[in-house]
Design a protein that fits this description.
14% helix, alpha+beta, 35% strand, six-stranded antiparallel sheet, single chain, 21 strands, 6 helices, eight-stranded antiparallel sheet, Cytochrome Bc1 Complex, Chain D, domain 2
Length: 395
């Protein structure tokens, strides 16, 4: 569903609508052609906020007016594919859930009905279209404009677009995630030259790492060193991450890099992939890392938040073997971080640059440690939401 303000009564928009939609649409073999079923699904699940005619005047009490579908101009794109993507994966940072439980044809039927409520749409010519992501991940390198007011231009930027509508924006000279966007992928006026014109990322920013200007993503603590940032009684030694290769396999792009100490010695090979993840509680993204660990000391993985972030809750999901850390950033944003390790237990520490995971090698551990970090971005947080965080399955 296109972006709308966060309703105060959020639980009504979680698991039940998906079940109701499935009941209404799942029984129609050709749902994309059945306007009656799509309208019934819209009335049951969307009209409470957006109104029966899509005019934005629903019965739900909202903190600001809901989006009017009749006006068009959706925040994440007014094409059928863009609306379908939003229905499929939800909107990070809002209570809009994912409806991936529905079949693809059902979701496309609902997207088509939402668009039918708005004004006629002009079709763009081939010369006006941007680079789009279909069934395979897409990697683009080039000059990137600042991702935020606090960030700087990136002459060696890297964009990874995934079929779920997310764009992961990196700096490539020091492999580091700057932020995550949702929506269309990227535009450039000239794709023929090696350098070309500056890239124009098209998605809306839904998450920033350190306001778009992150420090080193990885650092060593406790190992032999004479340089670094002092953290209590220990020294933190930042590591340079040198991008080596990108590899696309279907919907997934894997980045490979080398972690290098300031003296030029290599710690080992890093691998990272990322994509969308969501539940009926909130939407977000997931990063999957394979990291080398030092034989002594610890490796720290920066979590992208400034110093002073408040820990609201820590809990275990024993079934999924996932540890949840719920953090409130200094700007009030809440991030639910779910960490799963291939071995060992995750430890959250307050580093000099903000919250970080601290990982130590187990005796005899020689292979890279697998680390999965789920980041969910709820619009609001109360103590009651801890139950929804644990109860709603991730997709």
């Amino acid at each position: 569903m296109p972006e709308h303000p966060a309703p105060r009564r959020r639980r009504a928009l979680r698991a039940a609508p998906a079940v109701a939609l499935l009941a209404l649409l799942g029984a129609t073999p050709c749902a994309h052609a059945d306007d009656d079923a799509a309208r019934a699904a819209f009335l049951l699940n969307c009209a409470r906020c957006h109104g029966e005619t899509g005019d934005g005047h629903g019965t739900e009490t909202l903190d600001r007016p809901a989006r009017s579908f009749r006006d068009g101009g959706f925040s994440f794109g007014n094409t059928a594919e863009a609306v379908f993507r939003t229905i499929s994966h939800g909107i990070p940072g809002s209570p809009m859930p994912s409806f991936e439980a529905l079949s693809e044809s059902d979701r496309r039927a609902l997207a088509g009905y939402v668009l039918s409520l708005g004004p006629p749409r002009a079709e763009a010519s081939d010369e006006q279209t941007e680079l789009r992501v279909a069934e395979r991940a897409v990697v683009v390198r080039g000059l990137l404009p600042p991702i935020s007011a606090a960030a700087s231009e990136q002459p060696r930027g890297l964009l990874v677009g995934t079929p779920d509508g997310l764009t992961f924006e990196y700096r490539a000279d020091e492999l580091s995630l700057l932020g995550v966007r949702f929506g269309a992928f990227v535009r450039r006026t000239d794709w023929t030259g090696r350098g070309g014109t500056p890239l124009e990322p098209l998605g809306k920013v839904v998450a920033l790492m350190h306001a778009g200007a992150p420090p080193a993503s990885f650092s060593l603590v406790g190992g032999p060193s004479s340089k670094g940032t002092r953290d209590g009684s220990r020294l933190e030694l930042p590591l340079h991450c040198e991008l080596v290769a990108t590899r696309v396999n279907g919907a997934t792009c894997t980045l490979s890099g080398t972690l290098v100490r300031p003296d030029g010695s290599r710690l080992g090979t890093l691998e990272e992939s990322a994509g969308a993840i969501s539940s009926a509680f909130a939407s977000g993204f997931v990063r999957r890392l394979g990291v080398p660990l030092p034989p002594d000391g610890a490796l720290r993985v920066d979590l992208g938040l400034e110093p002073g972030a408040e820990t609201l809750a820590t809990t275990e999901d024993a079934v999924a073997r996932r540890t949840w850390f719920v953090l409130r950033a200094t700007d009030g944003e809440v991030r639910c971080l779910g960490v799963t390790l291939s071995s060992g237990e995750p430890v959250l520490v307050d580093g000099p640059h903000g919250p970080a995971l601290e990982l130590r090698a187990l005796p005899g551990e020689l292979l890279p440690r697998g680390v999965e970090i789920v980041t969910l971005l709820p619009a609001h947080w109360t103590d009651d939401d801890l139950h929804a965080l644990l109860d709603e399955p991730l997709r």
